[in-house]
Design brief:
The chain is of the alpha+beta class. It is globular and about 50 Å long. Helix 1 (about 30-50) crosses helix 9 (about 255-265), helix 3 runs parallel beside helix 4 (about 115-125) and helix 5 (about 150-160) crosses helix 7. Helices cover about 35% and strands about 20% of the residues. It starts with a strand and ends with a helix. The protein has two domains: about 1-75 and about 145-285, no CATH class; about 80-135, no CATH class. The longest helix has 18 residues, at about 30-50. The chain has a four-stranded mixed β-sheet with strand order 2-1-10-3. The protein has a four-stranded antiparallel β-sheet with strand order 7-6-8-9. The model has no long low-confidence stretch (mean pLDDT about 95). The protein is built from ten helices and twelve strands.
Length: about 280
């Protein structure tokens, strides 16, 4: 059994809601196992939230759009050229252990996302990431919005011309809830996607283009502090390294046998290889 997050878009601050769902876990590194976990998560979530439309955002997604929206694949403009959201984020990190500081890592900016992440992790082992520097801007990690910088990169990337087709597909297909089974960190592409859709619903998406208006939108001062008590409205804060949820955890009703049957029926055309067309929408129409 495992407990995983689903992020639902909301048209009001903080523009998403996090729901935890219990699922039967399929162990192993095979793509099929990851996708079975995804099916269990989505089906259990939909049993409790039948009006939502859910998408896994990762290279293991059952849908090609989920892979396109991965931070490893999504292009991001910088003053020095185009990279990916993941590389822009990792290379901007600043770490400290209380006595020394490392970062940012501009030499890593144009490395592939996974390589950039690996290198930054190695050099910062045992240290705490507390600040980011990107294109002349400094971001902090405020308690009421710890993923603020990551979200800024992701939201703006989706607004850039290079990602127009992906952005339009995301909005046209009407997804309202997002998952990322692989992510355990506080910075999560599924949450960012949910915020994007929420801001579009609220008619506020253009506010994220400007640094100052973005901070104002998320009730943050330039020094990373909250603007006031209102910044904590409807915000699920960490408590002993775990999110204190507003809603009860969704129980696991769609069990392993149900997932196996679903996979056999719906996913027979898929393989265990990460091929360019190995998605349900490509193989099964």
């Amino acid at each position: 059994m495992a407990e995983k997050s689903v992020f639902i878009s909301k048209a009001e601050y903080p523009f998403f809601e996090e729901v935890h769902v219990n699922i039967d876990w399929f162990g192993g590194f095979a793509l099929s196992q990851k996708r079975k976990c995804q099916i269990g998560l989505h089906q259990n979530f939909l049993a409790a939230y039948p009006k939502e439309k859910v998408l896994e955002i990762s290279s293991s997604s059952l849908m090609s759009l989920g892979s396109k929206l991965s931070a490893m694949n999504l292009n991001k403009r910088t003053r020095k050229g185009i990279t990916t959201v993941e590389s822009a984020f990792q290379s901007s990190r600043i770490y400290s252990d209380g006595t020394k500081t490392v970062g940012p890592f501009p030499d890593y900016l144009f490395l592939p996302g996974r390589e950039c992440k690996k290198l930054v992790k190695e050099v910062s082992e045992g240290m705490h990431s507390y600040k980011y520097e990107f294109d002349g801007m400094t971001f902090y990690a405020p308690a009421h919005h710890i993923s603020q910088f990551y979200d800024f990169l992701y939201l703006n990337a989706l607004l850039e011309p290079e990602n127009k087709a992906v952005r339009e597909q995301l909005l046209q297909e009407g997804f309202t809830a997002f998952t990322d089974l692989a992510t355990k960190s506080l910075n999560c592409q599924a949450r960012s996607a949910a915020i994007f859709v929420g801001l579009v619903k609220a008619g506020l998406i253009d506010e994220v283009r400007d640094y100052a208006s973005y901070l104002k939108l998320f009730r943050t001062q330039g020094n990373g502090k909250a603007t006031g008590a209102e910044a904590y409205d409807h915000v699920q804060l960490l408590y002993k390294d775990k999110v204190r949820l507003f809603l009860p955890v969704v129980p696991c009703r769609f069990r392993k046998a149900d997932v196996e049957n679903y996979y056999a029926e719906k996913c027979g055309a898929l393989t265990n290889r990460k091929e360019a067309d190995n998605y349900l929408d490509y193989r099964c129409g």
